[in-house]
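Exercise 7b. C-alpha cells:
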C-alpha cells in the first residue's frame, strides 16, 4: 500500500475545506480500501497520474454501486465530490454520503442545483467525479456518454482525469441486492486531459474524446484483470 495521504496537507488536497473534513475522508477511505482489498483484492494502476493540485473532473465508466468507493480510494489524496442518485440519500446511509461530500442528483432530467454545486466545487479548485453514462451498465460494457458532462467542461475547463474500472460488475451487478463476497477488481487512471484543449472542440468531438479516454483506461483495466484472473499475474 502507498503511504497514506497527509491530513495536515488539506489546503492542497481539498482547498477551502478544513482539517476535520480531511481526517474524516481519510478514515472513510481507509475503511473502503480495507474492504475492497480484502474482498476484491483491489489493484489501482497509475495513481501517480492524479494531479496534486487544481480542479479535476474525474470521469469513469460505471458498472456497479461499488464504483464510487473504487474511484475514491484510487484518487485518495484528493477528496472529491460525487454526484449520486437522490434515492440513495436516505437514513444513516444518506448522512454518510453527505459527510464525504456526495450530493444527490435526479436521475430523470438532471438537477440544475447539483450541477451548480459541481461547478462551484471545480471553481474552488477541488475535485468532482461524475459517471457520464448516467447510470450503471446493464452488462458491464461501456455505454454512450450523456451531454451533461459538457456543461462542467465548458463552464470551468478543469483538468479531466479519465478512469476505467473493471470487475465491479461481476462483484455487484444490477439486479443483485448485495455484493458478492469476493472477486477481483481493477481501477486504472488514464492520462489527464487539458480542459482548456477539450473546451476548444465542438461538443460532439469533446464528448467523443472523453469517451475514448475512458474507454482506453477501461480496456487497460479489462486486459489487466483478464491476465490476473487467468493466472498470469
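Sequence design result:
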Amino acid at each position: 500500500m502507498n503511504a497514506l495521504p497527509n491530513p495536515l496537507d488539506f489546503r492542497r488536497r481539498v482547498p477551502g475545506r478544513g482539517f476535520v473534513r480531511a481526517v474524516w475522508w481519510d478514515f472513510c477511505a481507509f475503511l473502503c480500501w480495507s474492504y475492497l482489498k480484502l474482498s476484491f483484492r483491489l489493484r489501482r494502476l497509475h495513481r501517480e497520474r492524479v494531479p496534486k493540485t487544481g480542479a479535476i473532473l474525474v470521469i469513469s465508466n460505471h458498472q456497479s454501486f461499488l464504483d464510487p468507493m473504487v474511484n475514491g480510494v484510487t484518487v485518495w489524496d484528493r477528496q472529491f465530490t460525487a454526484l449520486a442518485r437522490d434515492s440513495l440519500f436516505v437514513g444513516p446511509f444518506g448522512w454518510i454520503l453527505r459527510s464525504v461530500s456526495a450530493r444527490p442528483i435526479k436521475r430523470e432530467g438532471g438537477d440544475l442545483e447539483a450541477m451548480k454545486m459541481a461547478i462551484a466545487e471545480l471553481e474552488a479548485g477541488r475535485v468532482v467525479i461524475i459517471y457520464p453514462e448516467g447510470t450503471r451498465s446493464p452488462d458491464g460494457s461501456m455505454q454512450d456518454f450523456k451531454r451533461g458532462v459538457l456543461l462542467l467542461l465548458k463552464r470551468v475547463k478543469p483538468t479531466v482525469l479519465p478512469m476505467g474500472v473493471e470487475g465491479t460488475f461481476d462483484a455487484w451487478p444490477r439486479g443483485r441486492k448485495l455484493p458478492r463476497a469476493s472477486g477481483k477488481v481493477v481501477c486504472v487512471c488514464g492520462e489527464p486531459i487539458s480542459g482548456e484543449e477539450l473546451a476548444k472542440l465542438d461538443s460532439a468531438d469533446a464528448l467523443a474524446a472523453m469517451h475514448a479516454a475512458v474507454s482506453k483506461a477501461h480496456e487497460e483495466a479489462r486486459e489487466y484483470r483478464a491476465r490476473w484472473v487467468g493466472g498470469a499475474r
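Instructor comment: Strands lie at 43-45, 56-60, 80-85, 103-105, 127-130, 159-166, 186-189. The mean pLDDT is 91.
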